[in-house]
Amino acid sequence: YTQTLDTIVEVFLQPLRSANELLPKEQIQAIFSNVEMIREFNKDLLQVYSFLSLFFFFVCVCVCVCVCVYV
Fold this sequence. Notes:
The chain is an all-alpha fold. The protein has helices at about 1-20, 25-30, 35-70.
């Protein structure tokens, strides 16, 4: 999902902003709205999810090791 948002911004939004004569700023804003804010939020969310999933993986490994040692 974040890669798709990157593509939207890099392939469509940024070139449209650079080509001033294609669309007025108001139309570009109406089409893309806050896609850059959504992209940044989702990148942050992905980082948190990645960290938490790694953390819980290690917790599960530790629990399994403790159970195996005491059984």
